[in-house]
Amino acid sequence: MLNPLRILLSATKSLPTRRCSGYVSRMRYVNGLKEDDSLCDAALQSGRILLFHRLSPLLQRTERGTFRPAAFNSSDVQLILERLGSDRSLLKEAVLLGCSEQNQAEFCLDLGELDQAAVEEECEGNFVDLRKSFFLLTGAEAPLVSKGQALLRWHQTSRFCSATGQPTHRNQAGSQRVCSSTGTIYYPKLNVDVTELEDARWFSLEEIDSALQLPACLSAEHVSELGSSSIMSAFMDLNLRFTTERRDLRTLVRTAAQRECPMGDGPTEPT
């Protein structure tokens, strides 16, 4: 009599383990791509590539009237480059984003040197300003294009060593740049502007309150007592990865509390 129940309970307990195992295997796969240029190059040939034009993501309209990031395989991108008279080697500039749940590598590539209208016509999509794209994409897609833009921007602004002024060279995955003179290694630093978070409304006030586990009204002193690690963990739970200063996070939390509190009962500015 108890055997079916035991089987059901054992199967239920194994689900979180399987999810964790899948996540760990994906992270190991991504780390392997970052460390092995030949492996990353092979993954690029079978991966998905999100296209950008001067840091604006390419979106396509679906049959249901919604929008999604335009993703192409390497052969399609090479064909597009050929038709537009560009060198196929531009594909090598693609930057690794991560991998999907199906272990398919995901990359991003900026085609800013090509004519925007020509690329849009060839790809049957439109390049949209990043902030505007947040209103058109789902919650899972918006952080992906944001990460892509941040990585592409970092590579564009990190072509030279800050200490020597010498050129830096990236690995195939784009996970680091190395100074050609001193061998100093630079890693991407992804900064997300708090203003962008509020203007684009990535998360509702309820999601922020739930993630940070804040009461409806807080004083500035209470906000200041929150540890930076707990605040960062809340945003990591929302699948948003970024590095920012502690005072910026306090500003976001303080703004959320002010919106929830009645007039005159909100938190005051810290001294």
TrEMBL record:
GO terms for molecular function: hydrolase activity; metal ion binding. Residues 47-154 form the NADH pyrophosphatase-like N-terminal domain. It holds the Pfam family Zn_ribbon_NUD. Coiled coil: none annotated. Residues 157-187 form the Zinc ribbon NADH pyrophosphatase domain. This is Nudix hydrolase domain-containing protein. It comes from Scophthalmus maximus (Turbot).
